[in-house]
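Regression test attached.
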Amino acid sequence: MVDHRMPAATIRDVARMAGVSATTVSRSLRGMSNVAIETRDRIDRAAADLGYRLPRLAGGVRLVALVARYPAQWFFAESIATIERTLRGSGHDLLIFGVDDAEGRRNMFDRLTENPVVAGVIVVATSFDEPERSALDALGVPVVVIGGYAPGLPRVGIDDANAARMATQHLLALGHRDIGVASFAPGDTVGQDTTSARLAGFQDAMQAAGVPVQSRWVLARESNIQGGVRCAEELLTLPRLPTGLVAMSDEMALGVLWTLRRAGVVVPGVMSIVGFDDNPMAAGCDLTTIHQPVTAQARHAAEQLLVMIDSGVREVVDFDLPVRLVVRGSTGPVAPRP
Amino acid sequence: MVDHRMPAATIRDVARMAGVSATTVSRSLRGMSNVAIETRDRIDRAAADLGYRLPRLAGGVRLVALVARYPAQWFFAESIATIERTLRGSGHDLLIFGVDDAEGRRNMFDRLTENPVVAGVIVVATSFDEPERSALDALGVPVVVIGGYAPGLPRVGIDDANAARMATQHLLALGHRDIGVASFAPGDTVGQDTTSARLAGFQDAMQAAGVPVQSRWVLARESNIQGGVRCAEELLTLPRLPTGLVAMSDEMALGVLWTLRRAGVVVPGVMSIVGFDDNPMAAGCDLTTIHQPVTAQARHAAEQLLVMIDSGVREVVDFDLPVRLVVRGSTGPVAPRP
């Protein structure tokens, strides 16, 4: 039996027929500038042929979209909760898009491109490539970034390089010279520029102290507990462990710490570990770490976005909130080599 | 200077003028049944006087609203991430409402009452009182509950009483008789029926073993790490500690464990602790716990909601997913009293 129902045309069908991108279709149908007359005509014809209309909403429903690489991880979950709370009373409700894989990214851009009541976007610790960044810009709504870097977009964050420098200097001051890094993997990064900035801070501190960086101790894995476990497993296969380790998240640091202790490696006696974030686990597990104010970052970002939505002004603010080193029991003086 | 701009009328203004509830205004303006002709006329007049129109949306934007008591806590954050992923491709985007205080609850009901494109609601581990439940029903959209109980609504969860019984029986089998509970506080519960069911399971197991429950060891605090810390602080003021403790979340269990160890109380030597959830911290911290499948619950709930939205059928499914005891290093045989 043949199914005679036609699925409704999507913006992608129109784009395909008109030979343009979906964002161009969106810009054109919204009447935005920067679309050539000839292209606009072609898009209008394709949309008419396919019976496609951009969804139009009237009334008071306005949304803010939050884009998060890993919505369930601590930094993201805290940001979501804070932003939801900050938006209350503003007339904007919060949409969530997880973008931890290609399908999630594509879904997010498709949905935002078609959704006419998204008044602004908050990007939490997620990097975009060039085409994605163009698609984001093409939405024509204010965007604010937390926990990452995106040239030309307003941003609220921390000084990642300086924070990593502080963590490394703490280990150096304790006499450590053999220092490794548990870094975010390039393919799995919560923000590639964040990763680069933290690595640069680590390298700066090492260089300033005249201590060489050993590349075999610079590992890159997922940003979660499992990523830390895998870093520790990798370290344990090496002929010699570093005596100190800077991890780019508390989850990674604790994954390392738990795995090492299970393998009989004393922390901090044999290896000192510094985390990054100061999440509630860090205090409980006595982890030395870099405290970053996630709630303040999220609240500032949401407030900044609301200002931009209300005023129509695309102010490119860029500010860092302070971090601090919290010294606990996972770091100590370097032990003499046997 | 006097500001002559009139703020736009809200559904609450119409309700006040017509002398009815906001949900009745919503039902009436949507043309739903169960509104008396006379009331409907009064509402129409009030709406016209105030220039109020229920927001109407056309096109493909459809939303699922997720209501979560604590969006940042593990169970909620995992549910949010899974439900967002499950909804991809369904044509529904995910709205988040945190309802950890009265303002959040009121905001959620106001927004959902006014929002015409919410096609369904998922309630994650959150209890409602009678008026709130009526407001939820009045939305006229399918609702599915995870991690809680709501008579007459479809529900996906675990058998909480049985899970708490398993945790208690584990301690009883290890010879413990002095067993306490770190329970969710009534005013802060993630779901009052969940708390009651778990307490009932604990009491059942104790009664079946002929062991009396000591009310001084049954403590109720927030469901997070801080709540566990406060339980431990309370226990430490008592003349005698229990030898075993069942905590209603891993966060609470770890808050207890870390605080006791800091106070020099050996776990499990002096006190054995069983958690609840099996979150990633539990494995890392070697916590014996009840494993519950949060991802499966969230996925089933989202799929069930989509079926109800698509079919229009309000099936009241109610099913429990299996839990299991995971024995780790935080529990051991009872030590003889000195």
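Expected vs. actual: identical. Chain A is about 45% helix and 15% strand.
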